[in-house]
Amino acid sequence: MSTISKPTPQFGWIRGQFPGGAADLNFNRRQNTVSGDSFGDQVTLSTSPDDSLVSGQAHGSEVKLNQDWSPRLVKLDGWANGARYQMNVDYDRHQATGNANGQTIALNFDMQQGLVQGRVGSRSVDLKLSNDGQLTGQLGSGRVQAEMINLDLGHLMTHWYLINQ
């Protein structure tokens, strides 16, 4: 008996409300791009397959992040949101840690449970991604109500700078 396996979807999106405003982000895995709108500003990002550089525009400023990617660990280092940005997403430890504009990022995540909890600077983070793609919870004192389709928490962690200002 043969099994039918589906390939990874080529397109995904995050749409909804975050404390900083609305986000409507489209992910194209075929072209390695993210485009759309985040908090009223246009987002146009691409990842170079040659050097893994994430570059483009988001939140009205240049994004230029060196990306060191492996299936178990993703490291981003460079500039985003007009400031230094560094993020390590460690899938084995279920942690995303780093620094954004002088604020420490310390998040724990559980891919199976769909949970993200921790702190960004002095703000607490408590998010839940349901099986049907609904992302809800708190980011600081603000509410999150969004939809993530054909994406997982790994995409959210590696693109944290797009939903957090």
Describe this structure in words.
This protein has 165 residues and is mostly beta strands. The chain has one domain. It is 4% helix and 61% strand. A 14-stranded antiparallel β-barrel has the order 1-2-3-4-5-6-7-8-9-10-11-12-13-14. A hairpin with a 2-residue loop joins strand 11 and strand 12. The mean pLDDT is 93.
- Tally of discrete structural domains: 1
Describe the largest sheet.
Answer: 14 strands, antiparallel, barrel
Computed structural class: mainly beta
Distance between the termini: 51 Å
Strand % is over 45%
User: Mean pLDDT score, rounded?
Assistant: 93
- How many H/I helical runs? 1
Radius of gyration: 15 Å
Describe the protein's topology.
Elements (H helix, E strand, L loop, with lengths): L10 E8 L2 E8 L4 E6 L2 E7 L5 E6 L2 E9 L3 E8 L2 E8 L4 E6 L2 E8 L4 E6 L2 E7 L4 E6 L2 E8 L3 H6 L7
Antiparallel strand pairs: 1-2, 1-14, 2-3, 3-4, 4-5, 5-6, 6-7, 7-8, 8-9, 9-10, 10-11, 11-12, 12-13, 13-14
Keywords for this entry:
165 residues; mainly beta; 61% strand
Quick structural gist:
By secondary structure, the chain is mainly β. The protein has one helix at residues 153-158, and strands spanning 11-18, 21-28, 33-38, 41-47, 53-58, 61-69, 73-80, 83-90, 95-100, 103-110, 115-120, 123-129, 134-139, 142-149.
